[in-house]
Write a structure and sequence with these properties.
Rossmann fold; 2 domains; disordered N terminus; Aminopeptidase; alpha/beta; 377 residues
Length: 377
């Protein structure tokens, strides 16, 4: 089979194929394909192997205008979500994927009609390698290219391998949470899950009367919280937590199910610094069985509105462990941007944990309040 016929032989895109994936490995997939299959489990998708196609490097003379690049773009334009699967080669994407990205220059010059159709497409990355985490700056080319072309970058999912073996036992569960986060936002904590219409969440200042309910919720949520968060678990710890709320540098709110009055989660805004900084740090966690119902998303929007509105902050930062896919999906859905990676940033449950830094600026929050913006989904 020739490379040209390889593209033609792939199944055509259609309504039953909501995801299209580009496999960008130099050796027929291997671990990259395993990582992609982990993410695609149960999700219909067309998978196109870039190594089987004739896509040459970008040339100003357009001598390669009859290769597989433009037919591939036509296929991609039929789908709203693109998954780009790549190994990490020398701290960045594979050569196959980089050549594909370089050819986008043609969509800004000689094929502008195709270039205009890129706007609004969603892009996510599946990456694999032998290091514990993605290298710093790996996502920058994807994020900045999407910003430039009017596409939406939804983030990356990374799978660590030791030889042919996936290192993390929780990788499959985390992969499915990542897939859930890619669905169009409907205000729920796990996008794609059906959410019954209702009054949503309301915020409430923590106090002594909910102490027993809070401690019961912490006890039944141990598995949900896992290694990600360690909330107060005793009466003494709860009272100590309440005592922090008297100053101006710390605020906390219960997220309450407006329909039932049940305690659904907690959002903390701490280390509020004024002066030239005007910034605060977000911490949050849901309680079982309310995770995934959209209540934390609703509550977080209200806290952020207060932070940038009534409190007049300029920046809100959330530090999240890389494996906490649901929490990352939540802040991404609300417009936060990943700013960097902080090794051994916080000590949680007796261990120093690496965290990703996500932040939202007041200017970006304002932009999302405009009619028709993604922030009003």
């Amino acid at each position: 089979m020739t490379r040209r016929r390889a593209l033609a032989s792939l199944p055509s895109a259609g309504r039953d194929r909501p995801v299209i994936a580009l496999l960008a490995s130099a050796r027929g997939g291997h671990n990259t394909r395993k990582a992609l299959d982990l993410v695609l489990a149960g999700t219909p998708a067309d998978v196109i192997d870039l190594a089987r196609l004739d896509i040459g490097m970008y040339e100003y003379g357009r001598r390669r205008r009859h290769d597989d690049f433009l037919p591939l773009v036509d296929r991609l334009l039929d789908e709203p979500l693109w998954l780009l699967a790549t190994p990490v080669y020398w701290y960045t994407m594979s050569g196959h994927l980089k050549v594909f990205f370089d050819r986008f220059s043609e969509l800004l010059t000689v094929s502008k009609s195709r270039g205009r159709r890129l706007r609004g497409k969603d892009v996510a990355v599946v990456a694999c390698g032998t290091d514990p985490r993605l290298p710093e700056g790996f996502e920058a080319p994807f994020r900045q290219t999407c910003d430039y072309l009017g596409m939406r970058y939804l983030g990356a999912f990374y799978v660590q391998f030791d030889g042919d073996r996936i290192v993390r036992r929780s990788a499959a569960r985390e992969a499915q949470a990542f897939v859930a986060s890619l669905a169009p936002s409907s205000g729920d904590d796990q996008a794609g899950k059906a959410v019954s219409p209702g009054p949503g969440a309301r915020l409430e200042k923590p106090g002594p009367r909910r102490q027993r309910e809070f401690l019961d919720a912490v006890a039944r949520s141990r598995r949900l919280h896992g290694r990600f968060v360690s909330p107060p678990a005793t009466e003494a710890a709860y009272r100590k937590w309440l005592s922090r709320m008297g100053g101006k540098a710390y605020e906390s709110r219960f997220v309450v199910d407006a329909a039932s009055g049940a305690l659904a989660g907690v959002i903390n805004l701490s280390e509020i610094v004024r002066g030239a900084f005007q910034s605060g740090y977000l911490g949050y966690y849901a309680f079982a069985p309310h995770a995934g119902r959209g209540l934390m998303t609703d509550g977080m929007r209200q806290v952020i509105d207060r932070a940038f509105g009534e409190l007049g902050l300029h920046r809100v930062e959330a530090n999240i462990q890389s494996g906490n896919v649901a929490s990352i999906a939540l802040v991404r859905r609300l417009g936060f941007r990943r700013e960097g990676y902080s090794p051994r940033y916080l000590r949680i449950n007796g261990r120093w944990r690496d965290h990703e830094r996500w932040a939202l600026l007041r200017e970006d929050w304002r932009a999302r309040q405009r009619p028709g913006s993604r922030g009003k989904e």
